[in-house]
From TrEMBL:
Residues 215-255 form the PDZ domain. CDD domains: S2P-M50_PDZ_Arch. This is Site-2 protease family protein. Keywords: Hydrolase, Membrane, Protease, Transmembrane, Transmembrane helix. PANTHER family: MEMBRANE-BOUND TRANSCRIPTION FACTOR SITE-2 PROTEASE (PTHR13325:SF3), PROTEASE M50 MEMBRANE-BOUND TRANSCRIPTION FACTOR SITE 2 PROTEASE (PTHR13325). One of its GO terms (molecular function) is metalloendopeptidase activity. It is a multi-pass membrane protein.
Length: 588
């Protein structure tokens, strides 16, 4: 199957050939110019509007000075970010979707994190960003009395990707360095200002009118799980189990734990009901665990198990047991809390080999069939207590007398710093859904999730940072899902409340998406343009700033010194960006 990127590249080649043919025939007007697939549209219109807007020059210069300060801080941060990213790509290359070359392109459908479903909102945010960015450059040309030769729009084929203002080069060179820096910084300043306005609206009245629907949002069903077999799918919302309402994941787990029946009737928000035949399936496992992810457990020592409670009770009765799986295999293994003996831990001090894996089966005679059982047993101890630990190391039974150590923020003792949740290094789920983190995402953008387990009081800066990473937080933050706005399955998990409810969910979701992506893409445009390399604004600001500093130094050839600094930084930045994108795969 031909990829979206291949179609895009083929379209660009076809567009370039067509543009060359039309230009050769002389049918293209002079104000349209081609450079490969890049099209620029030039105009003189708008100069009178800029002249009028530029009249309160004292105000604009104050705004420009503020923008210069912001731009210099972001430039320094961008420089450090690129250098650090390039360094990490060399010493710790980790190929992932984040550094796929196609994901460096802000093209919906090509970039894995920019879905086609929100392409209109992304393009709107990009268009607004281009207008305010280049409008800022044009405005400050007139504020600083620099003439404008032309301005216009830049496109890749027919898609707008940039705008431009062409100042008169002679007047630009004659202007003082402060005027130049303010003019170059004006674009990114306006991008950050537009992003601020969009995010304030999103974090305030829009997010405040949104709420998570009652029930458990299903991001997906685990392949081969009970929920998957019952037809519960991505985008569903579970509202009740055997007639007992559940409004969040915590209530769902509590109801399933209390209800140990194999079959449960699951009600969905669309009014339908389906029967789930529960079966414990492994959903997480360490490399050395006796069972791998996706394995369905059917019995322990011949006793059939259908729920996680069944498995826990069977494990409690057998220190070593044969676990039967759905495919007919039987694995004999000790059943207990899996951990690693960290260097310097009480377990190592008691004689356990450092860095070895251990399955703890009892603590002072109390059965510890799982990590939670071990945690419960340890909760009744104190630092300094001496306990007897029975466990299995490399399949051999071992017994240690351990003096428990202190643990930060707790009164109980500690054996070692690392224990894996579940039994013997694997975790099971007898239901099989992967919950979509709808409440957490809503909190990130300023809404009230009504989640009693969620953190409260995110600052504005934290929310802005969250907006930056939400489109790829599934990869970068370990959430399992990216948040592209209120689109796709996410639209099933939210509702509109308060005065805006009269508008309906679709208009409010569209507005929320437009604000989300306008804020996001203008942050990205502003930050990227602050990278100190030509031809970006950061490169021009670097040159003008370097000239200003070098002019005060006792060096014989100031022009050469300025060129040396700007070229060195530019080459470093280009090399760093290339390494960030291609390095993880080259050095892996």
């Amino acid at each position: 199957m031909v990829s979206t990127l291949t179609w895009v590249l083929a379209g660009l080649v076809a567009y370039t050939l067509l543009a060359m043919a039309l230009k050769a025939r002389g049918v293209v007007p002079d104000f349209i110019r081609f450079s490969g697939p890049i099209t620029t549209i030039h105009t003189q219109r708008g100069k009178i509007i800029l002249e009028k807007l530029a009249r309160p020059k004292r105000f604009w210069r104050a705004w420009g000075n503020l923008g210069v300060g912001i731009a210099l801080v972001v430039m320094a941060g961008s420089f450090l970010l690129v250098i650090f990213g390039a360094y990490q790509a060399i010493i710790n290359p980790q190929p992932s979707a984040l550094n796929e070359p196609r994901n460096a392109l802000a093209i919906p459908g090509v970039n894995d994190f920019l879905p086609l479903s929100v392409a209109p909102e992304i393009l709107l945010g990009l268009l607004l960003g281009l207008i305010v960015h280049e409008g800022g450059h044009g405005l400050f040309c007139r504020v600083e009395d620099i003439d404008i030769e032309s301005m216009g729009l830049a496109l890749i084929a027919v898609i707008p990707v940039g705008a431009f203002v062409e100042p008169d080069e002679d007047e630009l060179l004659r202007s003082d360095r402060g005027s130049q820096i303010r003019m170059y910084a004006a674009g990114v300043t306006n991008n950050f200002a537009l992003s601020l306005v969009a995010l304030l609206l999103l974090f305030g009245p829009i997010a405040g009118s949104l709420a998570v629907v009652d029930g458990v949002p299903v991001g997906d069903s685990l392949p081969g799980s009970a929920a998957d077999e019952a037809g519960i799918d991505s985008g569903d919302v579970i509202t009740a189990i055997d007639g007992q309402s559940v409004s969040n994941s915590r209530e769902l787990q509590a109801v399933l734990a209390e209800n140990d029946r194999r079959s449960v009737d699951v009600s969905l928000d669309d009014g339908s009901t389906t029967t789930v035949e529960r079966a414990p399936i492994v959903v997480g496992a360490v490399q050395s665990a006796p069972l791998g992810v996706g394995t369905t457990i059917t019995a322990v020592n011949g006793t059939e198990v259908y729920t996680r409670g069944d498995l826990d009770r069977a494990a409690r009765n057998h220190t070593v047991a044969a676990i039967q799986t759905e495919d007919g295999e039987a694995v004999t293994t000790p059943l207990g809390a899996y951990g690693r003996v960290t260097a310097g831990s009480p377990l190592e001090a008691a004689g356990a080999p450092a860095n070895a894996s251990i399955i703890v089966t009892s603590l002072d005679g109390q059965r510890t069939q799982s990590a939670s059982a071990l945690g419960e047993a340890l909760s009744r101890t104190s630092p300094g207590d001496q306990v007897t630990v029975v466990g299995y190391v490399d399949g051999q039974r071992r017994e240690y007398t351990v003096t428990l150590a202190e643990r930060d923020g707790a009164d109980s003792g500690v054996l070692t710093s690392s224990f894996r949740a579940g039994i013997s290094g694997f975790e099971v789920n007898d239901f099989g859904i992967d919950q979509y983190p709808a409440a957490t995402f809503l909190e990130f953008i300023g809404g009230d999730s009504e989640n009693p387990n969620a953190e409260r009081g995110f600052s504005f800066v934290q929310r802005v940072f969250a907006i930056l990473i939400l489109p790829f937080i599934g990869v970068a933050g370990g959430f399992g899902y990216n948040f592209a706005g209120f689109t796709g399955i996410a639209a099933n998990f939210y509702t509109v409340q308060g005065p805006l409810a009269a508008l309906g969910t679709t208009p409010v979701f569209l507005l929320a998406n437009a604000l989300f992506w306008t804020g996001w893409i203008n942050l990205v445009i502003g930050q990227f343009n602050c990278v100190p390399t030509f031809p970006l604004d950061g490169g021009h600001i670097l040159r003008a700033t370097t000239e200003s500093i070098v002019s005060r130094l006792p060096v014989p050839d100031r022009r050469r010194a300025t060129t040396a600094v700007t070229v060195a930084v530019t080459v470093s930045m280009i090399a760093g960006l290339v390494l960030m994108v291609f390095g993880p795969r080259f050095f892996a």
